[in-house]
Q: What sequence folds into this?
């Protein structure tokens, strides 16, 4: 039988329940939403499948164990006893990143060095022939306990590979996917993004509608682990490629900035969904030619400032945008990011805040409501 581990899907603080909903659907088993992510039991193949398919998560970690770590010496000794030979070959390159919270020792680099030596001791043997990927090991020390994990995906999952061109204040791809899911969008529902910037909302929605796995262009380091079944990754990829279907639905992406539209089109072409999205250069208050029948979802990531005074100046834009959209798309749902409820209320009158998280270091909320003329 394949060994089972605790898997941890990292989530942006504030969106854990959205990630939990998706992971539970993908894994088809109960999961636990905790601060900073989602925890579940699974195999290395399950971890690779989450790297391949999870749209809303930030990373997928495979936890090797939780060990006593009151001192650096205890950390090293206890870490050495974990099953590193199941996830690392002798001589395979790896790095260790350590974080400390309320630990009795204060230097994270010293903790990382002791974990590194423990792993080297535990994986001694004849080196694997051929080139192996570098693996990132994470050591999270809290008080007298350390949790030791490996990064199954080899980095941040929002890096899908299509977004080479960016506009101002780009939203991470996994956060865009989480916002769409939280706002109730599903494939088949018309989508209008009138401040599209780099096009992330429309592209993520079109990829979802195509049932195209977000990690299709990524080879997770975990698939080269000693305990990973040899043919499993190929089978996962074949199944993912067979699932891709033509994109159906309405996706309208517009922006007043010509450079933003150019970036959005380029990104959509790399994602292979450009033909499914209608791009147009126009301001959010401009009429939409032949508005689509709905109801559907309007999603916006409007500009917002770092200071209260900047947001006061934006109030007029939010109000005008809300009135223009309500006149053209009455009865549609609207989901908008904003830095505070007062500003959100001008764009989504009577809306409800669904999420609160940080975007680019700025606390924002997702307000969702209905457009009423």
A:
């Amino acid at each position: 039988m394949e060994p089972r581990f605790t898997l941890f899907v990292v989530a942006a603080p504030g969106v854990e329940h959205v990630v939990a909903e998706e992971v539970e659907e993908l894994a088809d088993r109960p999961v636990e939403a905790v601060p900073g992510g989602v925890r579940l039991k699974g195999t290395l193949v399950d971890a690779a499948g989450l790297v391949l398919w999870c749209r809303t998560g930030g990373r997928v970690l495979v936890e090797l164990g939780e060990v006593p770590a009151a001192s650096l010496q205890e950390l090293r000794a206890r870490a050495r006893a974990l099953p590193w030979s199941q996830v690392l070959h002798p001589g395979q390159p790896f790095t260790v990143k350590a974080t400390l919270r309320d630990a009795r020792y204060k230097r994270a680099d010293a903790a990382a060095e002791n974990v590194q030596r423990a792993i080297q001791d535990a994986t001694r043997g004849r080196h694997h022939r051929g080139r192996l990927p570098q693996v990132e090991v994470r050591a999270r020390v809290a008080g007298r306990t350390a949790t030791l994990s490996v990064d199954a995906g080899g980095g941040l999952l929002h890096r899908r590979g299509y977004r080479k061109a960016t506009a101002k204040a780009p939203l991470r791809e996994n956060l865009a996917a989480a916002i769409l899911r939280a706002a109730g969008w599903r494939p088949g529902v018309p989508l209008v993004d009138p401040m599209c910037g780099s096009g992330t909302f429309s592209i993520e929605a079109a990829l979802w509608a195509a049932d195209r796995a977000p990690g299709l262009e990524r080879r997770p380091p975990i698939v080269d682990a000693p305990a990973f079944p040899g043919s499993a990754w190929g089978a996962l990829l074949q199944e993912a490629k067979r699932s891709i279907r033509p994109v159906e639905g309405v996706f309208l992406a517009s922006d007043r900035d010509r450079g933003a539209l150019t970036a959005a089109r380029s990104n959509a072409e790399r994602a292979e969904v450009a033909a499914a999205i209608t791009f147009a250069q126009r301001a959010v208050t401009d009429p939409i030619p032949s508005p689509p029948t709905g109801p559907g979802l309007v999603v916006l990531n409007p500009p917002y400032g770092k200071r209260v005074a900047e947001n006061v100046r934006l109030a007029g834009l939010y109000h005008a945008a809300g009135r223009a959209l309500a006149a053209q798309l009455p009865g549609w749902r609207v989901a908008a990011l904003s830095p505070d409820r007062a500003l959100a209320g001008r764009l989504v009158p009577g809306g409800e805040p669904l999420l609160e998280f940080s975007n680019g270091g700025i606390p924002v909320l997702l307000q969702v409501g209905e457009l009423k003329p």
